Amino acid sequence: MKFLLVFDFDHTIIDENSDTWIVKCAPERKLPNGLRNSYQPGHWTEYMGRVFVYLGDNGVKEDEMKRTMTTIPFTAGMIDLLGFIGENKELFDCIIVSDSNTVFIDWILKAADFHKVFDEVFTNPAAFSSTGYLTVQHFHAHHCAKCPKNLCKRKVLKEFLDKQLERGVSYTQIVYIGDGGNDLCPVMFLKKNDIAMPRQGYTLEKKISQLAQSLSPVQCSVLVWSSAIDIMSYLKLLIKK
């Protein structure tokens, strides 16, 4: 009996968007209008690439970025929840699927000593170049029309489950915890016995309820959370069953 917990990162594990938080490192803590207005829907990763070039051009170094990123607050109750999962790792496999990047997530999890809670992190690969600039790449290529072109979370989840099955690991239930529009695609992949946990008042919750209103609801159960303590309460019930 093993459960799979799938977490988004921005506005789920942390209470902010890591990509917009990094702007605190910019001169006057803001980006020039031309750069800000250069974002095109579905092309966030390319936009962040330009932001990182701007920061590099303005002499923002790795250690300053790291200091800034590790001040991001965790979502209410999340430290307790991750502690609880860490104590019960024999029951829970735990992954992150996020449109952030490897450098930011690694910094934040290691600073809070939570990196061991997660078995795998699926996010856009990032690294510092020889000139000290942060660079970011697309996580993968996919053919899903619903998702941004760098990341389809459904594809990630499906490939992870297939790989686990090959290793002889199958899950009693998948619990998907997220907040954003790009979390809807994997939620629609979940089965009747699984559970989606959208964050209250965020896009994912709104999209799930729109589907229910148009009589094409998701197959899985839905439980809304506002504090990670709500998630922990549910997991405690699960392991008592």
UniProtKB/TrEMBL annotation:
Say yes or no: keyword Magnesium present: yes
Catalytic site = D8, D10
InterPro entries noted in UniProt: HAD-like_sf (IPR036412), HAD_hydro_PyrdxlP_Pase-like (IPR006384), HAD_sf (IPR023214), Pase_PHOSPHO-typ (IPR016965)
Kindly list the cofactors needed.
Mg(2+)
Identify a single GO molecular function assigned to this protein.
metal ion binding
Residues bound to Mg(2+): D8, D10, D179
Q: What are the entry keywords?
A: Hydrolase, Magnesium, Metal-binding
Judging by the UniProt lineage, the source's domain of life is Eukaryota
Binding positions (substrate): D19, D99
Entry keyword annotation includes Glycoprotein: no
Q: NCBIfam families, alphabetically?
A: DKMTPPase-SF, HAD-SF-IB
Provide the family line. Answer: Belongs to the HAD-like hydrolase superfamily. PHOSPHO family.
Its protein name is: PHOP2 phosphatase
Q: Which organism is it from?
A: Oriolus oriolus (Eurasian golden oriole)
